């Protein structure tokens, strides 16, 4: 069961599993956005925290068999993509931008992201992607609040009202 969770039901066995897992997560997020009560930031946050702890647990369980942060473990991409879209308005264009930003930060691993892999066990497996998701989220938030107000909202159809 831990291998099933860690590989997101086998996606981790596919070449490019991290990207595929992030894309599948985008689809899940899109459908979550269609459910009114799941759009609530607190619900989205609780789901993200749950994914993180499940990922830490699964990472701890599979690491003795597969080694440190094995490519087959893609539950961390799910958590990272979830963090990317945390507190972001439900919008398909922003979801696509979030996917691109998350994959960029996850692959390039700038400032501090790479060092997160040194943390022990499942925490190390999860934290580099969580931090990549946080970086992507910050860039998205800056785009939403600094750029979108100065361009036509018709393309994005985003309401920034509180």
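Sequence proposed for the structure above (162 residues):
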């Amino acid at each position: 069961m831990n291998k099933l969770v860690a590989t997101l039901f086998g996606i981790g066995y596919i070449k490019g599993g991290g990207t595929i897992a992030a894309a599948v997560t985008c689809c899940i997020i899109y459908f979550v956005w269609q459910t009114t009560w799941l759009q609530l930031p607190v619900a989205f946050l609780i789901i993200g925290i749950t994914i993180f702890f499940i990922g830490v647990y699964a990472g701890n369980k599979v690491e003795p068999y597969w080694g440190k942060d094995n490519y087959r473990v893609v539950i961390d991409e799910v958590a990272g993509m979830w963090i990317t879209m945390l507190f972001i308005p439900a919008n398909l264009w922003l979801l696509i931008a979030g996917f691109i930003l998350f994959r960029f930060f996850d692959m390039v691993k700038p400032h501090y992201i790479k060092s997160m892999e040194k943390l022990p066990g499942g925490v190390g497996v999860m934290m580099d992607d969580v931090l990549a998701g946080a970086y992507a989220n910050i860039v998205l938030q800056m785009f939403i609040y600094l750029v979108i107000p100065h361009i036509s909202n018709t393309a994005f159809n985003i309401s920034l009202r509180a």
